[in-house]
Amino acid sequence: MAKKVFVTHQLPGKRIHELSRHCEMNVWMGPGLLPSAALRTQLTGCHGLVCLLTDRIDKALLDQLPELEFVSSMSVGVDHIDVQALSERGIPVGNTPGVLVDTTADTAFALLLAAARRVAEADRFVRDGQWTAANAWAPEFFTGKDVTGATLGIVGLGEIGQAVARRAAGFGMRVLAWSRTAREVPGVEMLALDELLQRSDFVSVHVALAPQTRNLLDAARIARMKPGAVLVNTARGGIVDEQALAEALAGGRLSAAGVDVFEREPVAADNPLLRLPNVVVTPHIGSATTLTRARMADIAAANAIAALAGQAMPCCVNPQVYG
């Protein structure tokens, strides 16, 4: 009898069709995202799950799913999954690393440039009809920060952080970095986190969300940042204290920010960052290109196919379950 696999959303790519030949596959067809309350019902009797980062897989859910044998997430981060609880049950968890490195680095640098040169603010100015003959141009008109020759501090020098460093080199930037894992990267000066914050004109965040990195950039560390600096976060919400960031921006200590990720997603309408003109915000689109999303889906499907065949997932975040 074919094993049952539930897929929480229609996925792009080609390998999802191949997965359907290896199992009895049920796909949530919408409308919209799968409601969290419906997840347990849909998973009843299933041996495998292919999910998104919007699907929370916690211990309470797992306790209701004795037949579950694997979880494959179409994401790099797995903070939406209780990996420890799955590991204790011997259940492998797959993710999709590597494929979105350049796409996310492009997004980070796009936000950095947009924040530095006040692109979103200027766009609103023109669309709202505020650009008139009376204020057509002036020496101080929408002046921003220079990127070329500035100092960039990268918090987290993994693959994405290194890709951002390569882009910064093209702008003649001096690159500083702090990482939880010691690394040597040509053209990058490693520093303690507090010193990096004090010396950087721009700070770009690229660490994973974990207990050790939650609120890593809290009010105290944001206060240590160089006056007039720009902060960019394309990693995960929860790493940066959003209230402290908003206060630093509103008070003029920091000049701007570019934010793709929030502690609560979708972001709450009353989030203080949304009220500030010097913040560029996007809805968690770091990996949002057609090609990258298709590749992510293909890896997620490949992880599931391997699990169904009794093989190790090609990309597994808890390989210790294989002994």
Shape: elongated
Number of strands: 12
Class of secondary structure makeup: alpha/beta
Low-pLDDT stretches are: none
Order of helices and strands: EHEHEHEHEHHEHEEHEHEHEEH
Give a quick account of the main beta sheet: strands, pairing sense, barrel closure: 7 strands, parallel
Helix tally equals: 11
Architecture of the largest domain, according to CATH?
A: 3-Layer(aba) Sandwich
Distance N terminus to C terminus? 27 Å
Give the % helix: 25-40%
Full CATH superfamily name of the largest domain: NAD(P)-binding Rossmann-like Domain
Sheet with most strands: strand arrangement:
8-7-6-9-10-11-12
Subunit organisation of the chains: single chain
Number of domains: 2
Report the C-alpha radius of gyration, rounded. Answer: 22 Å
Say what the CATH topology of the largest domain is. Rossmann fold
Q: Give the strand content.
A: 5-15%
On the 0 to 100 scale, the average pLDDT is 97
**CATH C-level label of the largest domain:** Alpha Beta
Structure, described:
With 323 residues, this protein is of the alpha/beta class. The chain has two domains: 4-99 and 290-322, NAD(P)-binding Rossmann-like Domain (Rossmann fold); 101-281, Rossmann fold, CATH 3.40.50.720. 31% of the residues lie in helices and 14% in strands. It has helices spanning 15-19, 36-43, 59-62, 83-88, 101-116, 119-127, 159-170, 193-199, 219-224, 242-250, 290-308; strands spanning 4-7, 24-27, 48-51, 70-73, 93-94, 151-155, 174-178, 188-190, 202-205, 230-233, 256-259, 279-281. The strands form two sheets. It has a seven-stranded parallel beta sheet with strand order 8-7-6-9-10-11-12, sandwiched between helices. Strands 2-1-3-4-5 form a five-stranded parallel beta sheet.
